[in-house]
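Problem: given the chain below (161 residues), write out its structure.
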Amino acid sequence: MTKDKFNFQWVSPSRGGSRDYSENSIRVSINKSGKEKHQIAIRINSAVMRAQRWVCGDRISVGFDLERNAIAVKRTPSKGYSLSAIGVEKEERDKVIGTHASCVVKLAAPQKLIEIVNQPLVIDFDACIDRDGLLIIPLADQLVNQDSGNDWYLDDIAILP
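Solution.
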C-alpha cells in the first residue's frame, strides 16, 4: 500500500471549558453524564459574578422557561445548587470560597432543553435581563414570545428549588 491512497482528515485538540467565552459572559452547555443522562452546565464568568454580587459557594435556584427559550438564575438562602469554582485544584478550593471567581453549576437537563441547546452557547451579560437579583439568560438571539414593550413577566417563570 502506498501513501498516495490515504486521505487523512487531521483534527486538532480543542480546549473545552471556560477558555472560549469572553470576560463578561455566561456559557450554557449540555453534557452527557452516564447512561442517557444529560446535565446542563451554566458557567458564569467572574465579571458576571461580581455584577450579580454572587460569590463561589453561594446557593442558587435555576428555572426554565422553554417556551420563551430562557433560563433564570437567582441566589437563594437555602436548598439550592452550589456555585463551584472553575479550574481550581481540590487543595485550592477553600481559598476561592467567598470570592468572585468564575463558577459553574451543573444539574439535570430537561429533555426539551437538550433539544434547544444542541451546542454550547455563549451569552453576553448585556443580552441577559436582571430583575432584582433574578438573572434571565436568553438561549436564542432574542427571547421568544417576549412582549413588544420589552417587559418580562416574572410570574410566568417556574423557579425550581
